[in-house]
Write a structure and sequence with these properties.
The complex is a heterodimer of chains A (about 350) and B (about 270). With about 350 residues, chain A is α+β, with helices and mostly antiparallel strands. Chain A folds into 2 domains: about 230 residues, P-loop containing nucleotide triphosphate hydrolases (Rossmann fold, 3-Layer(aba) Sandwich), CATH 3.40.50; about 100 residues, OB fold (Dihydrolipoamide Acetyltransferase, E2P) (Beta Barrel). In chain A, about 25% of the residues lie in helices and about 30% in strands. Chain A contains 9 helices and 21 strands. In chain A, the strands form 5 sheets. Chain A has a 6-stranded mixed β-sheet with strand order 6-7-8-3-9-10, with helices on both faces. Chain A has a 5-stranded antiparallel β-sheet with strand order 16-20-17-18-19, with no helix packed on it. Chain A is elongated. The longest helix of chain B has about 35 residues. Chain B folds into 2 domains: about 35 residues, no CATH class; about 230 residues, Orthogonal Bundle (MetI-like fold), CATH 1.10.3720. Chains A and B meet through helix 2, strand 6 and helix 3 of A and helix 8, helix 9 and helix 12 of B.
Chain lengths: ~350, ~270
């Protein structure tokens, strides 16, 4: 089922514009992530698709060929996983999963068959008769997902499905969720503020900020060629390298960096993982902080640019704070963006 | 001073209070009930006197009807008031909770003004509609009394319901009616049982309203009063009080255990 959104916008009665006119298409079976900081309008867009929020006049939401803009949420046949999971506390796991089928008056035999099928898909067979209040966070999340997909919805919507879990569990469940979503093969839209979730799960990511969709594309595209400073900073935490641009080189406080001739007048960004310690490197700075994060060190380096520049250092040993270090950045790893104030359409 | 002694000292006022105002009077009440010529046989006498048993049953039934009706009215009103914001809502709320300030006598008086021989209904439809001096009047009086209590409890509970539960039910295709039955009522159940129990207990013991309406309405508090003042039968009045207390306590216990299971199932 293709999901098409045309000019969807939402203005609250007090004049707050939660969502500026936004258009996007999600192909059949595709998993799209709406990514952005809180208050960027991503949840509003999701609720407009669900029918829980009424969009401004002129907005249009289509499921396949059907215009559902004015269709009540009960009749839209969407599956939704809520941030808090919103499981019915007075029902067992089975009753929760079968609820959507029960209210649609599906015959008992078929209901049981379908619930068993979804229980197996979500690996919940052992918990079928337990009260949902007795489940762990990860199990609740699977029940919420199972309940949403049991009635075979046209579109699956997930609102921050992993944010209620603690950090350790979140990482393992992220891959599990990605695998289950592929298995269901339903067009899915999921909202998150966590870039690693979006990168791991989504086929395409739509980055949003301040009610505006900034860029939409495959995870690799957004990472390698962000369209704006916001996207560059938000995905992969790119850091600006403010300096004087001369033909073929960028003059920084801590040295001169070679850049491609074609770079022209642009803002230059770089990510921490692309900055390498190198005794023959063209840039020089003073090490300010060193923190060990398991696989690598995170180095905070002063005097290369005005702000502290961060580099990831994969070695077994790191220099000590206060040491002078030399740095190398490959021109291929630099991200060039049109100078701020000249945002492309 | 060790910590243990300090805690013990802090508990002292509680101990004194429970002894003086709770335990002592009740012990004395039970004692007094056995001080007549019949001794403890007085309780057997209550069981053998149809009038007492009927009165007890009637009291329980009226109180039960009051609790159920108050729940039905207050739940619908409470859900609406908790969910909707409109001009005049605050004023409406304060009017609805006004009866909290009235003593039972005033409530009884209001019922007489409404359904008495010179009441509003009898003036409009002469000779037919006098309901103040009967169980109907008593029922209405208690109801008037109970609605604000239940209403406030229901509203507080409604505001605590997780709105995403209803949204989840809606995305799954549930009609508004099904959402009430499957999501809202189970969510409110513990509060409804608690509020109903309070309404029930209040109605069981309410005396002022009954006394204002008529002295011959057969509810237990009235019988206790007449035994005490007219017959000076202190033992019987005490025994009936004990029975009233026990009956209310047992019924509340049943309600609470029911609420307990709901709470457990509801997390």
């Amino acid at each position: 089922m293709t999901l098409t959104i045309t000019n969807a916008s939402k203005t609250y009665p007090d004049g707050t514009r939660a969502l500026r006119p936004t258009s996007l298409t999600v192909g059949p079976g595709e998993i799209l992530s709406l990514l952005g900081p809180s208050g960027c309008g991503k949840t509003t867009l999701l609720r407009i698709i669900a029918g829980l929020e009424r969009p401004d006049p002129g907005s249009e939401v289509r499921f396949g060929d059907e215009d559902v803009t004015r269709l009540a949420v009960e009749r839209r046949n969407v599956g939704m996983v809520f941030q808090s999971y919103a499981l019915f506390p007075n029902m067992s796991v089975c009753a929760n999963i079968g609820y959507g089928l029960k209210v649609r008056k599906v015959p008992a035999a078929e209901l049981t068959r379908r619930v068993d099928e979804v229980l197996a898909l979500c690996r919940l067979e052992d918990h079928a008769e337990r009260p949902v209040t007795a489940l762990s966070g990860g199990q609740r999340q699977r029940v919420a997902l199972a309940r949403a997909v049991a009635p075979r919805p046209r579109i699956l919507l997930l609102d921050e499905p992993l944010s209620a879990l603690d950090a350790a569990l979140r990482d393992s469940l992220r891959d599990e969720l990605a695998a289950m979503l592929r298995q269901f093969d339903i067009t899915a839209v999921f909202v998150t503020h966590d870039q690693s979730e979006a990168l791991a799960i989504a086929d395409r990511i739509a980055v949003m900020s301040d009610g505006v969709m900034q860029q939409i594309g495959k995870p690799e595209e957004l990472y390698r060629s962000p369209a704006s400073a916001f996207v560059a900073r938000f995905i992969g935490n790119a850091m600006p390298l403010p300096g004087r641009m001369e033909p073929g080189r960028l003059v920084l406080k801590g040295g001169v960096l070679p850049v491609p001739e074609a770079a022209g007048r642009s803002d230059v960004y770089v990510r921490a993982e692309d900055i390498h310690l190198d005794e023959d490197g063209p840039l020089q700075g003073t090490l300010e902080t060193v923190s060990f994060s398991g696989g690598h060190y995170r180095l905070g380096i002063r005097d290369v640019v005005e702000d502290t520049l961060f580099a990831t250092h994969p070695g077994r040993q790191a220099p000590a704070p206060g040491d002078r270090v030399r740095l190398r950045i490959s021109p291929d790893d630099l991200v060039f963006l049109p100078q701020s104030g000249h945002m492309p359409e | 001073m060790t910590n243990r002694i300090f805690v013990a000292l802090c508990l002292l006022p509680l101990a004194v209070f429970s002894m003086a105002f709770l335990a002592l009077p009740i012990v004395r009440l039970v004692q007094a009930s056995g001080e007549s010529a019949e001794g403890w046989g007085i309780y057997l006498q209550i069981l053998q006197t149809p009038r007492y048993l009927q009165t007890l049953l009637q009291t329980v039934l009226v109180s039960f009807a009051v609790a159920l009706t108050a729940l039905a009215i207050s739940t619908t009103a409470g859900l609406f008031l908790a969910r909707n914001r409109f001009p005049g809502r605050g004023a409406l709320l304060s009017i609805l909770t006004l009866p909290l300030a009235f003593p039972g006598v005033v409530i009884g008086f209001l019922i007489i003004l409404l359904g008495g021989r010179q009441g509003l209904f009898n003036t409009l439809l002469p000779g037919h509609v006098v309901f103040a001096y009967s169980l109907t009047g008593l029922f209405l009086g208690y109801l008037y009394f109970s609605i604000p209590r239940v209403l406030l409890t229901v509203m507080a509970a409604t505001e605590k319901l997780d709105p995403s539960l209803e949204e989840a039910a809606r995305t799954l295709g549930a009609s508004p009616w099904r959402i009430v039955v499957d999501v809202i009522l189970p969510g409110l159940a513990p509060s409804l049982v608690a509020a109903g129990a309070i309404a029930f207990a209040t109605a069981m013991g309410a005396f002022g309203t009954a006394f204002t309406l008529a002295t011959d309405i057969d509810v237990l508090p009235m019988v206790i009063y007449t035994e005490f003042t007219l017959s000076a039968n202190i033992a019987m009045a005490s025994a009936l009080s004990v029975v009233l207390g026990l009956a209310t306590w047992i019924l509340l216990l049943v309600a609470r255990s029911f609420a307990g299971t709901t709470v457990a199932a509801g997390g």
